[in-house]
Amino acid sequence: MLPDIYTQTLADNRRPLMAWSIGTAVVGVMYAAFYPQVGGSGGMAETVQNYPEAMREALRMQDIGSAAGYLGSTVFGLLLPLLVMAFGVTFGARAVAGDEETGYLDLLLAHPVGRTRLAVERFAGLVSGAAAIAILVFAGMLAIRSGADLESIGVAEFAAQCVQLALLGITFGALAIGLGAALGNRGQVLGISVGIGVLTYIAGNLAGVIGADWLKYFSPFHYYIGGEPLRNGMQWADTAILLAVSVVLVSLGFLRFNQRDLRS
């Protein structure tokens, strides 16, 4: 009897999910804990003031002396979004295209389960993984908040930023799952997804520097952190846009998945 696909997805990926969740949280906490040394009244804040304005804008270092400015430029502005993007792309590429390449997809579809149900439950596994990463990051930030002088950032603001972090991973995971369902080739999915990730990261951070500010509106990274959740809390419009983009990407991929001949 075919086990629940969602449960089986989590069970099959339990080790990589644990590694991504714990590893991402550790990286975030480790760099956040450096704030008293490199941010605040530390030497790095003074050094950054000598950087060109364009560089400080591109790296989100205009206010690195504050806790929100430091975390928004280094931890939540650089390290964690790239890590969750990598998680989303690798998990999403393996979810459907990986199964198709290994022949496991044929085994699954030999049971009375539709393609849409299979793809949706794979996507639910991705959403659970992204949520687990965000929850561990949130818990880690709260654990060091007092000791690392991050108390100027409220609990709600940390929660808001972590929600956006999960949604960023889901968005790129939706892109990879959608492409995998449409193309059935894991290598192509990885290449295209990573390329889009790099281009949209550049657009989200350098659009203003190169005088094309409108480009940032095509980048998920803008909706992830452009509203500065660490200062302003939940940005509901940005949240809705990331959710809508994710739904559109997986829907288009699943539509194509239901129409095409699968390789044997």
Question: DSSP helix count?
Answer: 13
Whole-number average pLDDT? 90
Order of helices and strands: HHHHHHHHHHHHH
Annotation, overall tally of beta strands: 0
Q: Estimate percent helicity.
A: over 70%
Please describe what this structure looks like.
It is built from 13 helices and no strands. The chain has 264 residues and is mostly helical. Helix 8 runs antiparallel to helix 9. The longest helix is centred in the N-terminal third of the chain and has 36 residues, at 67-102.
Task: Provide a concise account of the structure shown.
The protein has helices at 5-12, 14-32, 35-38, 43-48, 53-58, 67-102, 104-109, 115-144, 155-183, 186-206, 220-225, 229-232, 236-259. With 264 residues, it is mainly α.
Q: Keywords, please?
A:
about 260 residues, mainly alpha, globular
